[in-house]
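If you are new to this repository, start here. Below is one unmodified record pulled from the training split, so you can see the exact layout before writing a loader.
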Amino acid sequence: MTTRVALLIALSLGGGFSRVSRAEDFLRLPVREYLDKMKGGWIGQIAGVSWGAPTEFKWKDRIIPEDHTPRWTPGMINDAFGQDDLYVEMTFLRSLEEYGIDVSIRQAGIDFANSAYPLWCANYEGRRNLRRGIAPPDSSHPQFTRCPNDIDYQIEADYSGLIAPGLPQAAVDLGEKFGRLMNYGDGLYAGQFIGAMYAAAFFETDPVEIVRAALKAIPAGSQYAEMVRDLLAWHAADPHDWQKTWRLCQAKYRENPDYQRASNGGIDCKINGAYVLLGLLYGNRDPDRTIVIACRAGQDSDCNPSSAAGVLFTTLGYSRLPARFNTGLDEEREFSHTAYNFPRLLAVCEQLARRFLLRYGGHLEQGPDGTEVFVIPVSEPQPSGLLLSWAPGPVAGSRFTPAELAQIQFGNTPEAVTQAAATLFPEWKVVDCGPDMDPGLRAEWEGRKNVLCVHPLDHQTGCTLKRTVSLPANRPTTLRLVVGHDPQGDFDLIVRVAGRQLLRQPVTPATTTTGHWRELEVDLGEFAGREVAIELVNQPTGWSYEAAYWAEISLRTE
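And here is the target side for that same chain:
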């Protein structure tokens, strides 16, 4: 039986993934075809996020003008290695690889807590809760986070379908394990829906049918499911004018307060999920059109085309992609904060797909040409229970044990940062250093040796280096600083002496020299003869790669 025939049998029995009992109702997918489609799915994510990155959140509640839409060039394929909607989901893959497909949600939480990359929104709050000892599923409960319906798991759930071809239930179950680390209610269902679309995309080419199949994987009473039904209906009513449908989305899912409950503005999963579907449904299976529409819809305009292109490119397969997308990728380069370059990523996905196939009742057989074939049982997914983020159920009371907390060693511990500071800058004490971006000693960074990296504690609290010093009475003293910023971010440097702010200046590409360094001198003459506290603050400004790199802190007396 061919794959297409098996799929038609499944559809004739009541839907793309209907529950049937006869043993002959299977989908068959040659392993080589799986690998080609899975590889295409990853390239779709990479291309979509790279193409849309220059526009991210620059157009809110308005369509990006056509003449402001980036143009694709093949070299852009290598621009995604530092993107959070790729490296975060690879953390989940790593947990599955290291601990097996039965990894517990608590171990998944420990692994996520130990990640060192910068995060925002639901991811940030979920990880912060985990590091404070709030174990999943409570790490995403609305009592502990203000972002339960944010887009985060939606942009990270692609992996769950790419390792489970034809198995939407696996995408649902993986959402309950990894999506519950940071999202609740619609925020969780958004990721389960995306994963189920990928699972369907291995066998179906029509975006409408893919969306219909994935809709069965989430609770029908959720607002996210309502949004999906609306997009299908609005597209059916007018399959040509995507901007008209965009305006309908805006009126209902942005301007109607009934759909803004537990929403964090334009980062809400429903409106961004609608933009993913705009691209898929109105893109007419054209890679460029799909990405451009999902991007031009605005808001999270790199993550949305990434999801849309990922699903579409899965239907096409890597080998069938235009050369502008499937050539030029640096396959040796590792994705930021991961153990994976592109070949290792594909290898672990194949390994996990084989395990999930067996776990969900499938098996391998040999095809007529001697190659391996995935034999996948046709089944209808059972959605998670309905949760409402604005009227949540009770907390589970889940907390990490002391032994589990001892495993959470995210980046360098505050003690390690203090020891590094003591080695490089004796008598300076580090306080309020957050764990993001792996703070601590850098043996070499941007051309300088022995550099101290620190990071703000949170969105409002800067990391401070403190020292109390007695300044000589008759000789002027100058504080000399050499401090750098991450190439992708910036921060404000604040210098306080005796509680008074003497300086607040941005450390940005515009204010630094080659190598992202800034050199400053602060005159302390007015404090001569006094014992004063000096504070150097790495103050966040936008919560995007806010680390400070200290190469020199010295007091010079003439």
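Two things worth knowing about this chain: Residues 31-52 form the longest helix (22 residues). The first strand starts at residue 26 and ends at 30.
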